[in-house]
Design brief:
This protein is α/β, with parallel strands linked by helices and 181 residues long. It contains seven helices and five strands. 40% of the residues lie in helices and 14% in strands. It has a five-stranded parallel β-sheet, with helices on both faces. It binds NADP nicotinamide-adenine-dinucleotide phosphate (NAP).
């Protein structure tokens, strides 16, 4: 169960109303944006879009030693010197995103198993459980790390065909309201 009883917004001096008025891109331009799953089809476009706008970006990959998957990110590092940092993080490991998230204002959570039917043996185990666990892991880090003002979750139109969105919403509904819109 996603339990966020000790949410930091009770002890913090943040001003959620002011940050809630800003778009994620405006917030990102104030500091560093984290994009999870930088090796992914959608995430690398988000990384590139942010870099093109002059924003400093951090991204995560499942394995830093996977040369094939990291190569496009290394190419972006060469194109935007000093603007892109790459960290290793796994959706299935608690606290895995803490280091990458420190100092970030905005988190774009894009990493998620996105498999074609032939890759799926057990939909719950292969897709739903890692997606839920990963979302919970990222949100728990965002709730603890003081710099984070906004979390942007990537979803899919396929959610309409499942009960997964209600399932996630039920689990995160106790999260800090100021990072959710
Ligand atoms: N593609 C579309 O047309 C589309 C449309 C609408 C919405 N979306 C949504 O956008 C999101 C991303 O889709 P995508 O097409 O970009 O998928 P993708 O190319 O398969 O990328 C998925 C990313 O998630 C990472 N990932 C998966 N399991 C992980 C784990 N246990 N730990 C860490 N990273 C993990 C993958 O890392 P590895 O590279 O190491 O596997 C990869 O970086 C999904 O939520 C999807 O529903 C996609």
């Amino acid at each position: 169960m996603f339990d966020i009883q000790n949410s930091r917004h009770k002890q913090t001096t943040l001003q959620p109303t002011a940050s809630a008025d800003r778009t994620p891109l405006q917030l990102a331009s104030m500091s560093i944006a984290l994009v999870t799953g930088g090796t992914g089809f959608i995430a690398i476009y988000v990384v590139k879009l942010l870099l093109d706008r002059g924003i400093s970006v951090r991204t995560t990959v499942r394995r830093l030693d996977d040369r094939t998957k990291c190569q496009p990110l290394w190419a972006l590092q060469a194109e935007f010197p000093g603007k892109l940092e790459i960290f290793q993080a796994d959706l299935l490991k608690d606290g895995s995103f803490n280091q990458a998230m420190q100092g970030c204002h905005v988190v774009y959570h894009v990493a998620s198993p996105f498999l074609v039917p032939s890759q799926i043996k057990d939909g719950i185990k292969d897709c739903v459980e890692p997606a839920l666990k990963g979302t919970r892991t990222v949100l728990e880090s965002a709730d603890r790390i003081q710099s984070v003002r906004r979390v942007v979750l990537t979803s899919s139109s396929t959610r309409r065909f499942t009960h997964s969105v209600k399932h996630i919403a039920d689990r995160v509904s106790h999260s800090r309201s100021d990072v959710w819109r």
